[in-house]
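For reproducibility, we list the full input for the iron/sulfur cluster complex.
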Amino acid sequence: MIEYDTLNKIALDIKNCQLCLLCSNRKNTVPGEGGFRKKLMIIGEAPGYHEDQSGRPFIGTAGKILRNALLKNNIQFDDVFITNIIKCRPPNNRQPRINEKKICMQYLERQILLLQPKIICLLGNVVSSYILDIKSITNERGSILHKNDLKYFVTYHPAATIYNRNLLNTFEQDIKKLAEYISQN
Ligand code: SF4
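The corresponding predicted structure, in tokenized form, follows.
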């Protein structure tokens, strides 16, 4: 009998995962969540403190900024699937290490294969440089990029916009562009 993958199965595998050392300090794994009405996946870097406490992605200040930007374009948080490349919180919110990204990527790949998104929005340099191998998002942000038959859209991580009004404006303009793309395709 063919065994089909599901989001629940992936989440369970993540919950039981001990493939890297980040499993030792986590309170909860953060597999990602949301709906898929807009066929949009949004991918950040890694869970932070609040995400680790709750097991849910983007529930802190950065999540609020992302939610507001989406809402301004009539996209609800639960219309989109939101996750990170790393499913357990790195200590003190340090950047994920290359081996951690390599090992954990298998879960994100399963999620992408299962959901077949119309477009994937990458938030920030860490995730964009890892997945698309681009040096800096400054020149690439706000445009549609292609890799392995998938479409990507790159913008700043909302956490980077917290104390920077200019970046926040740019981030919101990017999300508007992304919303326009989704409504037209
Ligand atoms: S970060 Fe990823 S690979 Fe490492 S333990 Fe958590 S789920 Fe497993």
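The first strand starts at residue 33 and ends at 34. Residues 14, 17-20, 22-23, 29, 86-88, 100, 103-104 surround iron/sulfur cluster (CB under 6 Å). Both points were considered when choosing residues for closer inspection.
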